[in-house]
Amino acid sequence: MKKFLFGFFIFYLLYAAGISVYLLNLEPGYVPAEYAGTSADPKEFMTKSEIEEAHHLDLIQYFTFFLQTPLDVVLVLFFMMISVKLRNQAIARFRKSFWQISFYYFFFSLVLTLLYLPLDFFFYKLSREYGLSSQSLASWLGDMGISFGLDMVMGIPLIWLLFFAIRKFPKKWWLAAWAASLPLTILLMFIAPVFIEPLFNEYKPLENGKIKAEIQQLADEAGIPNAKILEMNMSKQTNTINAFVNGFGSNMQIVLGDTAINELDVDELKFVMAHEIAHYKMNHIYKGLALQVIVSFFTAFVTFCLFNWVREKWGHRWGIKNQQDIAVLPLLITSFSIISFLASPIDHWQSRHFEVEADRYAIEAAGNREAAITAFQKLTINSKSTGYEPAVIHYIMGSHPRITERIDFLENYDASDSGKAD
Question: Are strands 243-246 and 253-257 parallel, antiparallel or unpaired?
C-alpha cells in the first residue's frame, strides 16, 4: 500500500501539472472562427466582465473535476484501512445481517459526507458569491440532511439486497444486480415526482394563464393532454434557469422553474418548454432506458471482474474475509465508479443526440427562431458560462451540446429541409 500511495503521489503531481498547464492556457470567451461575430459568439451578447467571470467559474469547475476525480478513488480506497474495524463493530453490536449492514452503511456514508463537506461548502459559498444562488445556509444544510436521510432509507435496503445476491450467487451476483437495476430505475421514475422531489421544493399549478395556455397547446400537440403543468420554487436553491418534464402516465409533470418565468419572456418560455416536451414526444426516456440496459450489463460485468481482481490481490492485506464481507463495500463502490466513469461518454453521446433532436422539434413547434436564440443567450448569461468548453472537456463532461453550437444550429436551421418532428 505504501508503494501504491507513493506511486500515486508522483503520478498525481505530474497529472495536476499537466492539467494546470492545459486549463490556464484557455482563452476567455474562445469560440472557433466559424462562430466569431455571430449570435453564437458570447462576445456579441455578453460584456467583457461577464465573460471573465464566467471563465473564472469554468476554470474552477474544470480544475475541481479533473483534480478531484482521481482523489475520489483514492479516498474511498483509503477507507478500506478502517473498513474492517467498522465491520467488526457492526458484527459486535448486531446479529442480523440487515442491521449490521445498516450500522456499517450509516457510518460509512457519514464519514464520506463529513470528508466532502468542506468542498461542498466551498461550492455553496462560490454559488452565492457569483450570484448563482441565494439559498440560506439553513436551507442548504436542510437539503443536505434530507439527501442523507434518503440515502439511508433507499441505500440500506439496496446494499442489503446486493450482499444477499452475493451470498446466493457468488459467481453471478453481477447479473442479478444488473437484472434488478432496470425495474428499480423505472420504479424510481414513478415515485420521485410524487414522494421525493417535493421534499426539496414546492410544486404548485402554474398560475400565469398566458404561459399555461401556450404550454397546454404544446402538450396537446405532443399527445400529452393530461399532464400536470406545474411551477416549482427553484429559486430556493438556485438562480439559474431550468424546466423539465418527468414521470410516467398519471404522474407525468411539465415543470417550469420560477427562475425561468422571471428571466424569459413568453416566446422564449414556449421554446424552452417545447424542447422539454420533445423528450417525451420523441420517446427519449424509453430510448435512454434501452441504452442503459446494454451499457449497464457490461458495466456490471466489468465491475465484477475488476472488483474480484483487486480483492483477490490485496484483500488479505486489508483483512477482508471474502466477497460477502460488508467491509468490501468501499472497494465495490470504487470499482463501479471507475467503470461507470469510463462508460459515461456513451451516455453523454446519446444525451447530446437527444438534445439536438429536441432543439429541432422545439424550433418547429414554437416557430420563433429569434426567441429560441435569445433564450439560449440568456441561459448562457444566467448560468455564468462562456458556452463553449474545449473538446477534451466536452467529450468527458458534456451531456449537452455546447450552447454556442446550439445557437448556431438554430440560426442556420432551415425548416424547409425537414417536416415537423414526429
Answer: antiparallel
Name which of 146, 1, 170 is nearest 79 in CA terms: 1
Q: How many CA atoms lie within 13 A of 295 on its CB side?
A: 19
Grade residue 420 by pLDDT with cuts at 50, 70 and 90: very low
Three-class SS of residue 348? helix
CA triplet 229, 233, 239: central angle to 5 degrees?
Answer: 120
Beta bridge partners of 194: none
Q: Report, as residue numbers or ranges, the catalytic residues.
A: 276
pTM: 0.87
Residue with cell 429536441: 358
Whose CA is closest to 232, among 272, 269, 200, 204? 204
**Is 76 or 377 the better-scoring residue by pLDDT?**
377
Alpha-carbon dihedral 174, 175, 179, 185, rounded to 10 degrees: 20
In the DSSP assignment, the letter for residue 193 is: I
- Are residues 344 and 365 in contact, defined by beta-carbon separation less than 8 angstroms? no
The cell numbers describing 241, all together, are 434557469
Closest by CA to 285, choosing from 337, 244, 228, is: 244
The mean of the pLDDT values for the chain is: 89
List Cβ neighbours of 345 (8 Å cut-off, separation of 6 or more).
Answer: 395, 396
Q: How large is the angle between the packed helices 284-318 and 329-366, nearest 10 degrees?
A: 160
Strand, coil or helix: 135: coil
How far, in Å, CA of 134 to CA of 238, rounded? 7
Q: What is the pLDDT of residues 191-247, one digit of tens each?
A: 887 788 888 989 899 989 899 999 999 988 888 877 788 999 988 888 888 888 887
